[in-house]
Write a structure and sequence with these properties.
Keywords: Aminotransferase, Pyridoxal phosphate, Transferase. With about 400 residues, this protein is an alpha/beta fold. It is built from 16 helices and 13 strands. The N and C termini lie far apart (about 50 Å). The protein binds (2S)-2-hydroxybutanedioic acid (LMR). (2S)-2-hydroxybutanedioic acid binds next to loops.
C-alpha cells in the first residue's frame, strides 16, 4: 500500500537530537534543540515546578477531561502573564484564550482559525529567517507563507530598513508573524523604539500582528520586560493574536503547556470567537492535557511560587549570559578569525554563530558537536565543563 510514499528528510531541529543520540563519543555536545541544561549539562526541573507538583499531589485531583479550551484558571493566568494585569481588553472581557499543546499547538490553532475566518488576504509574512517549524505550521493551516527581511548577515544584526520596506510593500491587511522576544534562531530583537516604528507601519497598512511568544522571561530574565512588544501593540489598539509556550520559561517541555489568544472588539465578539476556537480544536485533539496546565496555573496563582519561578527564570537567563561571555572570551583569546561580538549581543536561548554549513558538518563529524545546519547553537547546552572543548573545536573549524 505504501510503496509510493517517499522518505522524508529528518527534522532540521529534532533530527539533530537523533544524530546526537546515535553518537557514542563521550565528548559529544548537543546544541541543537532549544532546551535548557543546568551547569552539569542535565535537564533542569524548576523548584517551582517540583513544589507545585507537591501541592497538587496533596490535593489528589481527578483525571477528568478538561473543557475543549482547557483549564480556566490556567488560561486566565496565562493571559494575565502575556497582556499584564492592567490590560484593558483583558479587564473588558475581550480576549479569547484557549489552552494549547504548547507553542506549536497555539500557532497551529491560530493558523487554522485565521485560515478559516480571517476575512482579508490569507498570507502570513514570516521574518527571514524564522523558526523552522513556522513555515510548515502555517502552510498546513491553509495560509500562504511569505517572508520579510529580518536578519542582516553583514552586521549580524537586525535589517531594520529591509524589514520596514518589506512590511510597507506587503498587501494591506496581510498577517505578520512577530517573535515577541528572543528571536529564534537569530537572538536579534528590535529595540523598544524600533518596535514602536513597526507598530506604526502595521497600523498604517492595517496588517494583522500575530505574536509568537515562546521565550517570555528568557530574553531579559524578566517576564514583564519581555512582554513589552505585545503590551505596547495592545495599548496602541492592535487586535493581536498571541501564542504562548511554557516549555522554556517553566521547563515544561514534554508536558506541552501553552495558550493561544486573540484580542477581539467586544465580549460578544469574544464569545463568538471562543465558540469557533472550540470547533477548530475538537476534531484535532478534543481537549488538552491536564497535568502541565495544573502545574503552570498553580505557579502563576501562588505569590510565593510565582516569586520562586521568576528567580529561577532569571537564573537560567543569567547562566546563558555568562556562557556568552565565556565563549566570546575564549574565541577571541584563541585568535579565531572573524568578529565575535554578536555572541554577547544576541538575546535569549540561541546564538546565531555565523558558522557555515561545511563548518557545522565538520564540527559534527570531527568534534561530535551538534547544532542546526544554519549555525544556530542553543547556548544552554554549554557549561563550565564543555565550553573550552567547544571553543577550541569552533576555532579549529573556522581556521579550517
Ligand atoms: C527549538 O527551536 O529548538 C525549539 O523551539 C524546539 C522545537 O520544537 O523546535
Amino acid at each position: 500500500v505504501w510503496s509510493t510514499v517517499p522518505a522524508g528528510p529528518p527534522d532540521p531541529i529534532l533530527g539533530v537530537t537523533e544524530a546526537f543520540k546515535a553518537d557514542k563519543d563521550p565528548r559529544k555536545i548537543n546544541l541543537g534543540v532549544g532546551a535548557y541544561r543546568d551547569e552539569n549539562g542535565k535537564p533542569y526541573v524548576l523548584n517551582a515546578v517540583k513544589k507545585a507538583e507537591e501541592t497538587l499531589a496533596k490535593q489528589n485531583p481527578d483525571k477528568e477531561y478538561l473543557p475543549i479550551t482547557g483549564l480556566p484558571e490556567f488560561t486566565a493566568s496565562a493571559a494575565k502573564l502575556a497582556y499584564g494585569a492592567d490590560s484593558v481588553p483583558l479587564k473588558e472581557g475581550r480576549v479569547a484564550v484557549t489552552q494549547s499543546i504548547s507553542g506549536t499547538g497555539a500557532l497551529r490553532i491560530g493558523g487554522a482559525f485565521l485560515g478559516r475566518f480571517y476575512p482579508h488576504v490569507k498570507t502570513i509574512y514570516l521574518p527571514v529567517p524564522s523558526w523552522g517549524n513556522h513555515t510548515p505550521i502555517f502552510r498546513d493551516s491553509g495560509l500562504e507563507v511569505k517572508g520579510y527581511r529580518y536578519f542582516d548577515k553583514k552586521t549580524v544584526g537586525l535589517d531594520f530598513e529591509g524589514l520596514k520596506e518589506d512590511l510597507r510593500a506587503a498587501p494591506e491587511k496581510a498577517i505578520v508573524l512577530l517573535h515577541a522576544c528572543a528571536h529564534n534562531p537569530t537572538g536579534v530583537d528590535p529595540t523598544p523604539e524600533q518596535w514602536k516604528e513597526i507598530s506604526d507601519i502595521i497600523k498604517e497598512k492595517q496588517l494583522f500582528p500575530f505574536f509568537d511568544m515562546a521565550y517570555q522571561g528568557f530574553a531579559s530574565g524578566n517576564t514583564t520586560r519581555d512582554a513589552f512588544a505585545v503590551r505596547y501593540f495592545v495599548e496602541q489598539g492592535h487586535q493581536v493574536a498571541v501564542s504562548q509556550s511554557f516549555a522554556k520559561n517553566m521547563g515544561l517541555y514534554g508536558e506541552r503547556v501553552g495558550a493561544f489568544s486573540l484580542v477581539t472588539s467586544s465580549p460578544e465578539e469574544r464569545a463568538r470567537v471562543d465558540s469557533q476556537l472550540k470547533i477548530v480544536i475538537r476534531p484535532m485533539y478534543s481537549n488538552p492535557p491536564l497535568h502541565g496546565a495544573r502545574i503552570a496555573s498553580t505557579i502563576l496563582r501562588d505569590e510565593q511560587l510565582y516569586g520562586l519561578w521568576e528567580s529561577e527564570v532569571k537564573h537560567m537567563a543569567d547562566r546563558i549570559i555568562q556562557m556568552r561571555d565565556r565563549l566570546y572570551d575564549n574565541l577571541v583569546s584563541q585568535n579565531t578569525p572573524g568578529e565575535w561580538n554578536h555572541i554577547k549581543k544576541q538575546i535569549g536561548m540561541f546564538s546565531f554563530t555565523g558558522l557555515t554549513q561545511p563548518q557545522t558538518k565538520a564540527l559534527a563529524e570531527k568534534a561530535h558537536i551538534y547544532m542546526t545546519a544554519d549555525g544556530r547553537i542553543s547556548m544552554a547546552g554549554l557549561n563550565g565543563k564543555n565550553i573550552d572543548y567547544f571553543s577550541e573545536s569552533v576555532s579549529k573549524a573556522v581556521k579550517g
